[in-house]
Amino acid sequence: MSIGIVLVVVAVVVAGIAAGVAVDRRRRSRLRDRFGPEYERAVEATGSRRAAERELDARERRFADLELKPVPGEVREQYARRWMRAQEEFVDRPEAAVHDADELVTALMRDRGYPDEGYEQRLRDLSVRHGRTLDRYRAALEVHALSTHDAATTEQLRGAMMDYRTLFDDLLADGEPTGTRRS
């Protein structure tokens, strides 16, 4: 009888461990799907998967409290026209065009309801819905910084415009991001 009880207890413990492992795997898979490359970036930054997953969960909770709103049709048209002007400007003044693209993306984030609490917090907030395009946004920001010192090449500036455009399109869209394409 006591061996039977021990076996039942062992079976319950093993089942509990297996269930916990399955839950962790589903959670990890969900976070990887949601955050894309940002998941691995968080693992690298925190030094552990568990810490990264807690951080990403916290980002999701904060994001759920944001009051993001879609861009109304007429405002969307205005943004689209402003983007076209920035692209046209690139031919004669590439640095100015990249600067305008940066300002345009920042204004669009603000209009959508993303808080402006500094660079790192902005990236954390964006990562929840735009994790797959965030590396491109970071690259655009780096080139923008280089361009303010006349240290960016025309090819780098062109790439920055494409990277800004990816996030711009995502932000302008109502609903889920669209930015897995490379222009």
Features:
183 residues; mainly alpha; 2 domains; elongated
Any overview of this molecule?
The protein is elongated. The protein has two domains: 2-65; 73-172, no CATH class. It is mainly alpha-helical. The longest helix has 34 residues, at 2-35. 78% of the residues lie in helices and 0% in strands. It has eight helices and no strands.
Arithmetic mean of pLDDT = 88
Radius of gyration: 22 Å
- The tally of structural domains comes to 2
* End-to-end Cα distance: 70 Å
Number of helices: 8
How do the helices and strands follow one another from N- to C-terminus?
HHHHHHHH
Low-confidence stretches: 176-183
Offer a concise description of the structure.
This protein has 183 residues and is mostly helical.
Strand and helix map with partners:
Layout: H1 2-35, H2 37-46, H3 49-65, H4 73-89, H5 94-112, H6 119-130, H7 134-147, H8 154-172
